[in-house]
Amino acid sequence: MQALPEYLLLTKGEIMSDSKAIIEEKLAALESGLFTMSKDRARALSNHETVDLIEALRADVATIKAELNK
Question: Which residue ranges of the chain lie beneath pLDDT 70?
Fold first, then answer.
């Protein structure tokens, strides 16, 4: 007998808690990234570091949106 995929074995509560954990993780990354680009930071980012960070933050926002639309 073939085992079911793990996602089929999760309860609604477990799925919601996984989504919440993912969203919390991505929001923490957004907060950190925004601080990194803020005037409160001691060292300014280079242009390529800023572009890389913005792309990473955009990916985090896309992940959050996907989690909310589940």
Answer: 1-16
